[in-house]
Write a structure and sequence with these properties.
Oligomer: single chain
Largest sheet: 2 strands, antiparallel
Structural class: mainly alpha
Number of helices: 15
Strand content: 5-15%
Number of strands: 6
Distance between the termini: 87 Å
Radius of gyration: 28 Å
Amino acid sequence: MLIIGSFYGLNVYKTYLAPNVNGDQTYLYIKTGSDYNDLLSHLQNKNTLNNLDAFKKAADKMNLPASLKPGRYRLSEDLNNRTLINMLKAGNQDPVKLKFQNIRKKENFAAYMAKNMEADSLAFISVLDSTALLEKYGFNKENSYSLFIPNTYELYWNIKPIAFFEKMQKEYNKFWTDERKQKAAKLNLTPIQVSILASIVDSEALYDKEMPIIAGLYLNRLNRGILLQADPTVIFANNDFTVKRVTNKLLSVDSKYNTYKYKGLPPGPIMMPSINAIDAVLDRQVNNYIYMCAKDDFSGYHNFAENETQHNINAKKYREALNKRNIYR
């Protein structure tokens, strides 16, 4: 009896309690729609387990084939079959940490999401461009990018794009507190318009401490009905982000994003603006600046001017510095 009991105990240990992950993989990915046979094929092809037969025996006893859930599951060498199977049955995923910051276009954002999540980029773009869905929340195809507030988020790998959109909409509402909305209203801007302007400020400012100054300058131009003439919008309109010098050829592009041609804000953000840029617009510096030009020392800072005469002096210095470095585009 002792021998039989020992054999039974050893069998139970090997089947359920013995560590059974080889440590070569950090995560196990189970795609939506996969079944138990797909899982077994994956485990075998990736050589994930030390003893696949023991896993299958435990899985059958624990009814895994009927209750497998898709997701991204963290693996470790001390993981035994019972713990792993319970994890797969309960859907106890390890969330993905995503950091949204300085992503230029919706297409880049969709690609970033597809790289880290189960859904492909087309699935995310289809949601971002869904007129009915966007209108429901007060956005359109041009300004939908304003919805996404840069931050670090924890999301399940297999979240549906529509569920992701709805989660971001809730985060957007949390971000736009009554205080922020009141500040925007005092500037005669909607939250979406603040984000659009913030995207320009973010593109112009290498240093955060210049953001409120730049925001004040552009608000001066908006309030006086002066063309924004923001170089980053021209670069966006030409879809060439290698440009270091905006030329007359680039300025001729006929696009609503070309703020040298069209008055007011462009129809949507030219990048995902940072929270610092959004708050810089809301807390803009009150100044009389109308012009800005990068400093000729290439420090990343700007010279600001209240009149065209001073601006022309600053611009001439910068053009000459560009010429010395043979930068013509």
